[in-house]
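[job 4471] stage=fold_predict status=RUNNING
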Amino acid sequence: MGVRLKVSRVQKNTLSLDNVRVQHRAIEARAPITLHLPVPPSVNNLFINLPGRGRVPSQKYKQWRQDAAATLWTQPRKFMGGRVSVTLRMTEKARPDGDNFWKATLDFLVQNNFIAGDSKKFVREHHFYWADVEGAVITIERAA
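[job 4471] inference complete, writing structure tokens
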């Protein structure tokens, strides 16, 4: 005895957004994102030259990325799309010039999906302050 299966035609999905109600209301601005990270290495210590391989991340940079990512387990993970303003407050104990911290910080924010990119299209302004904080405190806000 054979079993007969009835095969029916699958109808094409004809869902449309034509009949969807749309509410017209203002979208609230996203609250600033604040992160507490270890002090990033200076831009001078991010990469090393290896014969046959070119420039590769240094061990110090790799370690910092791991340490910084580990701090994210205890901090809110949010994405701030579009144009942003980034503020970096660095402990007074850090040694290099303030501008040497930006590369690692912005790359970290992009790689961990806090901001869309670190080009001028996305980061419209950035501010640096020496402060009485532990490590580095980064604040991401919508740019005007």
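[job 4471] summary: The longest helix spans residues 59-71.
[job 4471] exit 0
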